[in-house]
# Entry
Amino acid sequence: AAVGLRDPVGRGNLSGRLRAVETAAFRRRQGAPPAAGPLAAAMSELALEELSALAAIYCEPDACEVLAVSETHGITFRIQITVKELLDTDVLLKLLFHL
# Structure
């Protein structure tokens, strides 16, 4: 399950997206042609699984989100958290990854 991941671009949460990826992988195994190359689909599938695991371990609820998923351009993923600075002020930290 994809604990803590959300998808703000309107395609559902990551666990729903993982089900869609699994369904697409099943269809490919049944002979349906992949949208891009099979290597791209497999890489995307593995990356989404890895992101789900990392988010479940390290992210607080709603701190991690998938911004975009594309078999040709990869996955864009953001971690957004607030940290305390030395002077006791909150600093918003945004980490953006393009996989």
